[in-house]
Specification:
Largest sheet: 3 strands, antiparallel
Distance between the termini: 38 Å
Number of helices: 5
Structural class: alpha+beta
CATH class of one domain: Mainly Alpha
Order of helices and strands: HHEHHEEH
Strand order of the largest sheet: 1-3-2
Strand content: 5-15%
Oligomer: single chain
Radius of gyration: 19 Å
Amino acid sequence: MSRSSAAARVSEQAALFAALGDETRLDLVNQLSSGPQSIARLASGATVTRQAITKHLEVLSGAGLVRDEWRGRERVFELDPRRVDDARRWLEQIAERWDARLAKLRKLVEED
């Protein structure tokens, strides 16, 4: 992987994790994990306005985490499982690197 494509990949992942880094957006992802939902349903019981929910959904959409479609007069959002899998794989890669580094450290410590 070239340096520029690696940088682009990191930038893409940064947008993904930035979108997930907000409590309200993370709650929306959790709600959408049970299936597609309208803005009205997502906003019911929320501590923020429907307009704020819409803005949060736009951020999630911009990060590729959700997609939407119009069904009649309702705009329905659903989670894009591919991006959730991207986040999972990215975290697994980081965990594997840390595990390898910790194993090396353990080996060095145990040799002394």
